[in-house]
Amino acid sequence: MRHKLSKAPFWIVTVAIAVVSVGQAGAQTVWQKMKQNVLQQECQQGNQQACQSLAKMKQAPQTAPQKQPSGQPALQTPGAGPQQTTHGPDGSGPIHPPDGTKVEETVLAPLAPGAKFFISPHGVHVATFETSGSRAVIYYDGVPGPKFDEILGGNGNMPTEIQVVFSPDGKRYAYCARLGSEFVVMLDGKELARSSESNMGRFNGTSCALGFSSNSQHFFYASAVGRSTSLGGHFTRFFWDGKQAAVTTAEGVQLNGPPGGIPLALSPDGNHYAYVATDPADPNKWVLVIDGKVAPYRGGDPQWSPDSQHLYTILLTPVPGRGQVAEAMLDGKPFMRADQIKLHVAPVGNMWVAEVNAASTTPQPLRFLVVNGKKVPGSEIVNQRGPALDQVTISPDGKHFAARITTADNRQYVFVDGKRGQEYQQVDHITFTAEPSTVTYTAFTNGKPYVVIGDQESDTCFPEQSNPVVQIHGELMTAPRGGRAGTICGLTGGAQTVFMDGKTLPLPNGASSASGLRFSPDGRHYAYVAGFQGAQRLIIDGVVQMNSNVGSSSVQRAYFVFSPDSQHIAADSGPPTPASQFASGIFLDGKYTPVVPTPGMKRLEFTADNKHIAWAQGASGDTFRIYVDGKAVAEADAAVPSSSKEAWWDMAPDGSLSVLAQDANNLKRITITPSAGTSIASLGGGGAMLARSGN
Fold it and tell me: What element of type H or E holds 673?
């Protein structure tokens, strides 16, 4: 997804892949104008610091910045730069990184009028669309590519949307361009292919719809071709690593599988693919394509086995007087036959679950479940009014299954591993915890909502809604490991409770509200924020952390994180005791440390090696500072108004941090390697709080 960049406040949420647009520069650049507009708005809202910055901006001469040559380190005035700036009234002072801290800047692109930036999901790489004279050019990390007439993207409805795609690991990129009467596919800065085939003389994103495999090792694209309006005049070619598949298809290979299209089935390991190709001249003729070759058998709805070595398919065959018969096949060999079959393959192991309609044309159509070739007793349903058996779910460990069954009187229950659960008016959000697997779901009956974990039903419970910081499964939070699940129950006209591992727990004494429940990576610990009179405290494993204050009436923030090894926890916090003067700091492993009196953190994360903690904090306007272990190490203007990790912040496995930023002239990447002289222990007093808790 792409997003135009504006110099909006730094904390506006965007998405992982961003696009940045730059307007026309004049005596005052568009960046200066946008920054001035933001400061003016903040000043009108009573921000005196913004008023002071606005006054200084109006007094300073407005000159257009000069371009810095692409790919070169940003020039700095001797004795100045991001490590030696001073910010005046906020008390932050000059930056002096601890000895041993390594701060490197790399110019990724000049801030040119009309430029658009495409940002990788990891590693903070940037592809930039700019013009060289009248020609279109894509820069990658500041290095220009070939000149083209245009960069392609979009479709017939949005022909001007430029398309640049990145591999899942963020290390590879691709785009498509037009040069005269040909389109050119560019992969990792080199030409992969070119063709003069067009869609009735037009080129756009459908000429080369691009994608990468899940392991980032393979690149593929589909090319829509239109030669005439007659039957067979439109078709799609598919290419994998530059090699064309054996046949074309009339329907086209839909990379994202839209309704009515033919989705591309990619194997879990990212090394194989399959799809159904229809003869452009005869819709009744079709074949199954596997890894570019026509399979020796036919089958639709392809699904790969968890080990990526086998392919499940469904073959529908017309039967005179009966409609059709469906055969479920593994590598072309039938293993089940019925009127209708919908197959579900487990994410690991060998389990498969089939929804079977065994008598679709009889007065009372019969449906049931089949697991690994055996009919499941008790799953038989007479299907009289639409879907009566749905939401089939398999556990992450591939050992358990569940489904929602609707009775003839429109009541519902969850059917788990062959056992019928309690009946409700409605059940929803069926999922399993991680191993050991326990089914969880929400329910509603007799005018009241409930949450069910295993065979334990909560008290009346409105589950907490999805949190943008973490992934919520349905309306229940499940731990990444350890088989735990829970939610905050908001009760109308009553006190909130915590429903954890099948038990209803009251909030701590004095707490009036709660939110933000999440688990540590190992699943052993949970935390949430609870509101008390005058403060919001962090609650860890049910214990109130009195040294924390993660919110106030004027600044709402409830941001806390666990370390990757689950041994530490940190939160953006104010002073434990509410004070009249605004202050800001960090709560780490039970200790509060004041840092700088500016509004909340924009990002907070432990380094991947668990040795350090880093965060971004606003300084003034669009400027932010990066802190590591409580020490300011770098300062720059925000390049992308986002709190999304993929958009501007990337923590590398070696413990270094890369941040996307900008100065007056360039978009740049700042890479920070923390000093061995500072650590979590030096900031938090040597804690490993969660390890000490013994929970």
Answer: strand 666-673
Residues 6+ apart with CB under 8 A from 617: 584, 595, 596, 598, 600, 601, 602, 624, 625, 627
Distance CA 311, CA 294 (A): 14
* Percentage of the chain exceeding pLDDT 90: 51
- pLDDT given at position 427: 95
Q: Nearest 5°: CA angle at 88, between 86 and 94? A: 25
Please give the Cα distance from 74 to 196 (Å, whole number): 41
Look up residue 44 and give its two tokens.
């009108």
Burial track 65-104 (b if 16+ CB lie within 10 A, e otherwise): eeebebbeebeeeeeebbbebebeeeebeebebbeebebe
Closest to 605 measured CA to CA, from 582, 583, 574, 629: 629
pLDDT band at 386 (very low <50, low <70, confident <90, very high): low
> What is the enclosing helix (H) or strand (E) of 38?
helix 30-44
438's tokens? 């326990």
- Closest C-alpha to 546, from 515, 577, 520, 582: 577
- Note the pLDDT of residue 57: 65
Question: 36 pLDDT band (50/70/90 cuts)?
Answer: low
When comparing pLDDT for 642 and 611, which is higher?
611
- How far is it, in rounded angstroms, from Cα 284 to Cα 297? 16
pTM: 0.81
pLDDT in tens, 101-128: 999 999 888 777 777 888 898 878 999 9
As a whole number, mean pLDDT of residues 387-391 equals 85
| Max Cα-Cα span within the chain | 88
* Mean pLDDT value of segment 307-313: 97
Around Cβ 497, how many Cβ atoms within 10 Å?
A: 21
Contact yes or no for 89/48 (Cβ under 8 A): no
The string of DSSP codes covering 522-553 is TSS-EEEEEEETTEEEEEETTEEETT-----S
Give the DSSP letter string of 181-210.
TEEEEEETTEEEEEE---BTTB-SGGGGEE
Range ranked top by mean pLDDT from 19-28, 492-501, 668-677? 668-677
For the stretch 115-168, pLDDT in tens is 788 889 887 899 999 888 899 999 999 899 999 999 998 765 444 578 899 999
- Residue 252 CA to residue 275 CA, distance in Å, equals 10
Q: How far apart are CA 255 and CA 266, in angstroms?
A: 10
153, 19 contact by CB (below 8 A): no
User: 3-state class of 494 per DSSP?
Assistant: coil
Going by C-alpha positions, the residue among 688, 557, 625 that lies closest to residue 87 is 625
Closest CA to 606 of 543, 652, 637, 638: 652
Burial of 333 (0-12, 13-18, 19+ CB in 10 A): exposed
Q: How far is CA 254 from the centre of its chain?
A: 21
Cα separation, 117 vs 109, in Å, equals 9
Classify 102 as helix, strand or coil: strand
Cβ neighbour number for residue 650 with a 10 Å cutoff:
21
* Distance (Å, whole) CA 448 – CA 494: 13
Phi, psi of 325 (to 5 degrees): -125, 140
Burial 368-406 (b: 16+ CB within 10 A, else e): bbbbeeeebeebbbebeeeebbebbbbbbbbbbbbbbbb
Going by C-alpha positions, the residue among 517, 531, 513 that lies closest to residue 467 is: 517
Q: In Å, what is the CA distance from 526 to each residue of 480, 523, 557, 684?
A: 11, 7, 18, 20
